[in-house]
Amino acid sequence: MVSIRRQILVLALGGICLSPALVLAQASYPSKPVTVVVSYPPGGDTDAIARLFAEKLGQRLKQTVVVDNKPGAGGTIGNGWVGRAPADGYTLLFTPNPFTTAPMVMKLSGAASYDVLGGYQAVIETATQPLILVANPGLGVKTLPELVQASKRGKNVTYASPGAGSPMHIAGEWLNKAAGVKFVHVPYRGVGPSVTDVVAGHVDTAWVTVGAVRQYLETGKLIALAVGDAKRSKLVPAVPTLSELGFKDVVVGAWNGFFAPKGTPTLIVKRLNEHLNEILTDPEVVKKLAVFGALPVGGPPEVLQERNQREYAVMGKAIRELGISAD
Fold this sequence. Notes:
Elements: H1 2-13, H2 20-27, E1 34-38, H3 45-61, E2 65-69, H4 76-83, E3 91-96, H5 98-105, E4 120-129, E5 131-135, H6 144-152, E6 158-161, H7 167-179, E7 184-187, H8 191-200, E8 205-209, H9 210-218, E9 223-227, E10 254-261, H10 266-279, H11 283-291, E11 295-296, H12 301-322
Parallel strand pairs: 1-2, 1-3, 6-7, 6-8
Antiparallel strand pairs: 3-10, 4-10, 4-11, 5-8, 5-9
């Protein structure tokens, strides 16, 4: 009780008026199971990483943490559902970065959309997943400059993405504009099918996450041409960035993180952030993230908040200028 009184006093001195009952509820959090919503079907990278964090978080909170898949409409159904959930810390969203851009590429109406910047409380950016452009060896090129030159000489080049409006699609069209070429977009339903077809040679190149193609890069079944991040990735340190290759403004990556409904108590957000930061230092977690081509990030909630705001502006501009849509 002394601890609770101290919290009340601190909040009062800070100008925040909370009732003793509310502070008690926050101090005893969580007193029931916590739900982590994933806006995609079971079985994918996002779902698997969410379950990894849910298991570790449940152990630390000493409470059940369950993953609830709510797929549909490019992730916007589950995202919107969390935005309308009670802001009590018992409903969280684990999401990749299409959270920020999906309402723009889906061209959703106000009723079907959600407030990307004002409707959620950032909890933590958990990891980044570098995007990589890979090619089938049968294409006959070993570098991106060679591919660009082949296209300019008249060669028809195709590139796969896991879906229209995805970050990979944005990367492909942004590169087209910067390089003055027209690699033809072939959208798939997910990363898996796009990887299968580029390995088989049905499509020339593909924008994917590193984890999805690492085994094929190691065996020579695919060739890495470039990464979309601003800096080289330590997962594939020998692969140059688009910036290094002369396309300085083209920077597209992937990330994931936890959000809560706007208004979730600061004490609860702080507790979740602290636990998840500790989880991100767990060697087992770091190793498992690497399997998915992901690198831990962590830090305070502001890291994710600023990432979301920055991408909303930068990617939003690119989406408009490139005419990207999910159609």
